[in-house]
Write a structure and sequence with these properties.
heterodimer; A: 370 residues; alpha/beta; 6-stranded parallel sheet; globular; B: 699 residues; alpha+beta; 4-stranded mixed sheet; 3-stranded antiparallel sheet; 29 helices; 13 strands
Chain lengths: 370, 699
């Protein structure tokens, strides 16, 4: 749900919220503009005013599960789909030993059998992660209207699949031309001090406009040098405990780093959750995170896409390479309060180029007693 | 009493019901709380005043892409407003609404429905349950339009009235916060119990997330400790402990023996939980989902009604006059902080960006105006400075208590969101939340409080709500609220009509409806239960059971139907105290004797037709394990087809699996079985078998 009084000066947000339901729409918004919650609120309205014949589809299973955690508070009755689940039929098979397992259903020629159930209203979040063909399939599945939410700047799968920008949907797909277009420019998640820093990390970003950052948080981001990688991990454990943080993500570039950090943190005591896969699997086929617990979650930059946390820890930046820059930016902008960037031995160029006045370099800010 | 009408746009609906008031247009950007915009319409367009008309007339809003519809607020009041012209009056101050003297008019059913729908996403739109019966569709209103008033003599905004509005908002927030804090407060034992449940939830989630599904030593140790906190509150454990002269080792031994005879304490032993977790994943585990959702249910809010007769918090002339604290220093400090700092517009809304400023200002105020020369030797100096350092990232070694200083520390650390704050205080085993939520309320102000928070108070019974509402009204406006108009206005939320546009269902509506479907009820019981469920309103668990007991067929506590529903809730619900949940594992129950699994498995099926077929087939399958059974369809006694088959749960589960798969895949290509295939396509066999194996076969 939304604190509407915090948005009221944002014509774009209010226009999306208060828009009539009789037209399809495409909402393009930057990171932190509240697209996902707007998608859920749209579903809430449809359910209330038009009934249950709607579907919510997102790209990854991780985001699907994250959004599901907000489903109850909105009273949404329909299950959400992640794209693979929506796109393909599955069936159960049984091994000789009697153990059952699910596989994609295949026709006689071995091709996967499409699923793509239709409904009156189709709502899709992170539309920038889909191909033109996939978007056409969504439109065809909507008997009445479709509502797409996305942000081209956040497409981190563009090298992995042939995605289409949000702006191009209406150019390329005729059926989408009559949809009403909304653009959201304000960012409600990212604190301005963090935005000032992360903007210097991003690739191909539009010019920095401080006034679009609406969060009132003032906490300065921290870039801290430690003696070693293990000292960084100890610091993460210490800060979480000292600050009583309960909504935390520890983000790393690769799965093998994820596993290492997870094991080290477990050794320090405490409860940590991990999303770990043996290879870089951007479908996040494993769901091992419980968003109703207060445990810190450890995962890759890619896995954090679409999620948000009170505190983001990004250790091991000494190993950063330029190919990770876009995903590092997406990961760093997941915070709505605290950002800790950590390194040892070698400060990567992208950090040393950031003006010192944009961040703190210590865990604790010293003050005088009264 | 005179009646006035205020025409406005429905786009202001959420604004009005966030603060329960309407202000002159120019107040909104000035008042620094809640909404800062007001959608202006030609019929009410003056900057410094609200226009009030003496007649209800219709008007229209221009067609647009947004849901902008005409809406009129009717107020009844003794106040004399100055006239601007014939039939048009004005107010230079905020008009505070109350459910006894307010009505809201729309001009079509569709407008009303859309506006109420749009109120749902807005967290700050609150109190609607009190106003729901005051929302009308005035379809037959004469089509005569309001004349547009354009008054050229500028009526300036009254700064004094803006200031007063700020104080009302702050003190109203404090009063709501204090009473809601009292509602949420609990006993020391209960909070220890809740804390243990929260920790168990975290530990179990962490183990489930572990790729090896194993607990670290730290987790195993803590799980044992917290499980023992939970188990130790079980009546059986307590009785044994008393019997064995408080020797817990002996009790553990006895429990292990009892365990062999299938008497299992709620969370079983730590080892058995760890064994279960080792093969579970969040993705497919019904057992764990049930386990975690039961934990959530157990930590659910418990409502205590603080009587207004206790006069624990008193404000006069929009100043805090008295607040109940454990000691005089806390009381005086609290009053000083509120009246000098917190009730002003300086600190509003989200706490974390202003937490340091608040901490600094309250520390300095305490030093300079309260302790003065005694500051250096005071405990407050040590605590408040430690808190300030903590807010800058340093350790905080103080033990949390229920006192003012701990309450402030909790609010500054986690006060952005009331649920986070409550959770934090529970982790710290604080059990009295009155001061903390009073601080939360005054810092946020009433307009910023969210509906889920205020509903904690408004969900109590209507007599109490009326009493508290009147008390707040009296304190804020220094006059008695006339609630005698009961024949016209009934805020009894339980009697709301069921086709209401607002959700007035209990929060467990869907779950209990699903659960009830697992009970083989008579048609009569079914009809009575459904009618009750749909009319009981947004009651809590205790109220639900209490009301249900008044229904025919459910009156006797021992009636099967009542017992069935009662078992849906945890003992906490019935006893007004938290006691442990039932064992999740039913290895000892034979599937042929205890057929409740059919109802449980049905819950895994979404399609109604498939549900029905599955239930019918499972009943048949079980009957056929008997020597003889009465076939309902054929109306005669028949011999069981599966007599002699193994009756172990493991073998029955294998049988159920084969049985269902035969119907889904029809491997023998029997023509007369074809019709079953699409139905069984919708039966999630693997999930059902997984559930049965976990719960009944200890696998």
């Amino acid at each position: 749900m939304i604190k509407e009084s915090e948005l009221e000066k944002d014509g774009g947000q209010i226009a999306v919220l208060m828009a009539t339901l009789d037209k399809s729409c495409i909402v393009s918004g930057c990171a932190g503009s509240g697209k996902s919650i707007l998608a859920l609120v749209k579903a809430q309205r449809i359910q209330r005013e038009k009934g249950d014949d709607y579907q919510i589809i997102v790209f990854t299973k991780a985001l699907c599960n994250y959004m599901k955690s907000g489903r109850e508070s909105l009273g949404l009755r329909k299950d959400f789909y992640y794209h693979e689940e929506w796109r393909w039929k599955k069936e159960m098979k049984t091994y000789a030993n009697g153990v059952s397992y699910m596989v994609y259903k295949r026709d006689e020629e071995g091709n996967k059998v499409p699923n793509m159930p239709k409904s009156d209203y189709i709502i899709v979040d992170e539309i920038q992660d889909f191909t033109e063909q996939e978007i056409r399939e969504f439109i065809q599945a909507a008997r009445k209207n479709f509502y797409f939410f996305g942000d081209t700047a956040q497409s981190i799968f563009e090298n992995l699949k042939d995605t289409i920008s949000v702006e191009d949907i209406q150019f390329n797909i005729e059926e989408a031309r009559t949809a009403k277009r909304f653009d959201l420019y304000n960012n409600y998640r990212l604190p301005l001090p963090v935005a000032k820093l992360t903007h210097r990390i991003g690739v191909g970003l539009p010019p920095f406009i401080p006034s679009i950052y609406k969060s009132t948080e003032i906490e300065a981001p921290r870039i801290i040098e430690y003696e070693s990688f293990d000292e960084q991990i100890k610091a993460i454990h210490r800060v979480i405990e000292t600050k009583n943080l309960t909504d935390v993500a520890i983000l790393l570039p690769h799965s093998n780093d994820v596993r290492y950090v997870y094991n080290k943190l477990n050794q320090l005591g405490g409860n940590y959750e991990v999303r770990y896969t043996d290879k870089e699997d951007w479908h996040n086929s494993k769901d091992t995170l419980n968003f109703n617990s207060s445990n810190p979650k450890i995962m890759t930059y890619h896995s954090a896409k679409g999620l948000q946390f009170e505190a983001i820890f990004m250790p091991k930046l000494e190993d950063f390479d330029d190919s990770q820059q876009k995903s590092l930016y997406v990961a760093a902008t997941r915070t709505y309060k605290y950002l800790y960037m950590m390194w040892s031995d070698y400060e990567p160029d992208f950090l040393s180029n950031i003006p010192k006045e944009l961040y703190e370099t210590e865990e604790i800010t010293t003050i005088d007693d009264f | 009493m005179k009646t006035f009408y205020i025409p406005t746009s429905s786009l202001n609906f959420n604004n009005i019901f966030s603060s329960e008031s309407i202000s002159p247009l120019g107040f909104y950007p000035e008042r620094k709380f809640g909404y800062s915009n007001w959608v202006n319409i030609p019929e009410n367009a003056l900057e410094g005043v609200i226009l009030l008309y003496d007649t209800l007339k219709s008007f229209v809003r221009p067609i647009s892409n947004v849901e902008d519809h005409p809406m009129v607020i009717e107020i009844q009041t003794d106040e004399d407003f100055p006239a601007l012209q014939e039939g048009v009056f004005y107010s230079t101050h905020t008009i505070y609404l109350d459910p006894w003297h307010t009505k809201v008019y729309f001009f079509t059913e569709q407008d009303k429905s859309v506006v109420l729908s749009l109120s749902e996403h807005s967290l700050e739109t609150k109190m609607l349950r009190l106003y729901k019966k005051k929302m009308f569709v005035a379809e037959n209103t004469p089509r005569e339009k309001y004349s547009v008033v354009t008054h050229h003599d500028n009526i300036p905004i009254s700064r004094a009235e803006v200031e007063k509005d700020i104080f009302v908002n702050k003190i109203k927030g404090l009063l709501y916060g204090y009473y809601i804090g009292a509602s949420l407060s609990t006993s020391v034992d209960n909070v220890r119990h809740i804390h243990a449940l929260l920790e168990i939830n975290d530990i179990v989630s962490a183990i489930l997330s572990n790729p090896e599904k194993t607990a670290t030593d730290f987790q195993a140790e803590n799980l044992t400790e917290y499980l023992s906190v939970v188990n130790n509150t079980h009546p059986l454990y307590r009785a044994l402990l008393q019997q064995e002269d408080n020797d817990s080792t002996k009790v553990e031994r006895l429990l292990r023996i009892l365990n062999q005879y299938n008497i299992i304490l709620p969370f079983d032993t730590c080892n058995s939980i760890l064994t279960t977790l080792s093969f579970e994943s969040l993705d497919n585990s019904l057992t764990i989902k049930r386990f975690l959702s039961q934990l959530t249910l157990l930590t659910h809010i418990q409502n205590n009604a603080l009587s207004t007769d206790a006069s624990e918090v008193v404000s006069t002339d929009l100043n805090l006059h008295y607040i109940k604290c454990d000691n005089e220093v806390d009381k005086e400090l609290f009053i000083l902080w509120v009246n000098k700092v917190l009730r002003t517009s300086k600190y509003n809304g989200k706490i974390s960006p202003i937490k340091m400023e608040i901490a600094n200002e309250l520390t300095l105020l305490s030093r300079n105006e309260y302790f003065k020369e005694e500051w250096e030797t005071s405990q407050e100096k040590l605590f408040l400075n430690a808190l300030r350092r903590h807010l800058n990232g340093d350790k905080f070694d103080y033990q949390y208590s229920n006192g003012l200083l701990s309450s402030l520390a909790a609010v500054l650390a986690k006060g952005d969101d009331w649920e986070q704050l409550l959770r934090f205080m529970r982790y710290k085993e604080m059990n009295d939340y009155r001061l903390a939520f009073a601080l939360y309320g005054v810092l946020n102000g009433f307009a910023n409080l969210t509906r889920d928070f205020t509903d904690i108070l408004l969900e109590q019974d209507s007599k109490y709500v009326t009493e508290v509402y009147s008390e707040f009204y009296g304190q804020l406006f220094n006059k008695k609220l006339d609630t005698s108009l009961k024949s016209k206005i009934d805020i009894n939320i339980k009697l709301e009509e069921t086709d209401s546009p607002l959700s007035l269902k209990p929060h467990f509506y869907d779950d209990i409806l699903q659960y009830w479907k697992g009970y083989k009820s008579s048609k009569k019981d079914d009809a009575i239960f459904n009618a009750y469920l749909n009319s009981c309103g947004n009651v809590n668990e205790q109220q639900f059971l209490k009301g249900l007991k008044k229904e025919q067929g459910f009156k006797k506590e021992t009636s099967k139907a009542y017992q069935y529903i009662k078992s849906f809730f945890t003992p906490e619900t019935q006893e007004h105290q938290i006691t442990p949940i039932q064992s999740l594992f039913l290895f000892s129950n034979n599937l042929l004797d205890d057929t409740s699994w059919i109802g449980e498995c049905k819950k895994l099926i979404i399609d109604e037709k498939a549900k029905k077929q599955f239930e019918e087939d499972m009943d048949w399958l079980i009957d056929n394990y008997k020597e003889n059974y009465y076939d309902q369809k054929k109306k005669k006694q028949l011999t069981g087809q599966y007599v002699g088959r193994s009756k172990s749960n493991a073998d029955i589960i294998v049988h159920i699996k084969e049985y269902c798969e035969k119907r889904r895949y029809n491997p023998d290509k029997k023509v007369n079985m074809n019709w079953l295939m699409p139905i069984y396509e919708k039966v999630p066999i693997e999930k059902i078998i997984d559930y049965l194996q976990r719960i009944y076969a200890n696998r």
